[in-house]
Amino acid sequence: MTGPRTVRTVLGDIGPAALGVVDAHDHLFLRSPALSAAALDDEGAALGTLRAFHGLGGRALAQWTPFAMGRRSERLTAVSRATGVHVIAATGLHQEVHYDPELLRELRRGDALAELFVAELTEGTVTGDDPDGARTGPRAGMIKVAGMFHALDDHTRWVMAAAAQAHHATGAPIGIHHEMGTAAVDVLGLLHGELGVPAGSLLLGHLNRFPDPGVHRELAAAGAYLAFDGPSRAHSATDPWLVESLVALATAGHASQLLLGADTTAPGAGPGAAYLLRTLRPRLVRELGPAAAESVFAGNPARAFSAPWTP
Asked: pTM, whole model, 2 decimals?
């Protein structure tokens, strides 16, 4: 695809340079019966998160909550407008455990899943969990998919094939949840190697949870974006290795591919979006220098989330 690249936000398409400082992977709204923690469904809390982030210089947040997981896409426009923070909404599908089997059977008819993704990217997101429901939400600006722990199951392969179809139809970037940071090489092999999605359209998430420098370098060498998200999540390998991993990749020449996100999945689960700027940004400035830190927070996400949208 050729043509000018733009970022698709809930308030409309904008130029990449207008995105500003970005929380590249987070959730304002999220719900699943498979998650034991309380849902993120409080609009007041979402407004508070965005205002705190904005107060520290944050200007954009990518909500990776996919279809039928309580993403409340119809409210994202309001919270974005009220706070001055650009919000990128997601279409896509998570692991099988998060969905009603009947819904998945409905989505397995023909190309229904790829068609849903394309429609949400180009026409507007469906409100609620009905894929045939009214498209009253804003257009999605990315696709979210998920791998399994050290594996890709049939559900994963089906969803990723649909995501690749949607990418080829629209140019949309694809963000990937890697369970505990694993199977990223397998995901890259499927989406990029087999399904032909350019590596530069892939945002490989949760790599801080699997701090293997050799794997990180292999993924970066292919040209993908590497997302380190969920700082200070107690159940994950995060802060003790986070800055060290970023420094190692930057030293190896991959500073232009690094992304940071807070990945808040429940009330009180982690320090939130503001932590990225209040605590991590000064550390990155010290370790990498101001130019590289600016790239991680602004330049890299501006490229990662932009696309030559069709249509």
From this structure: 0.96
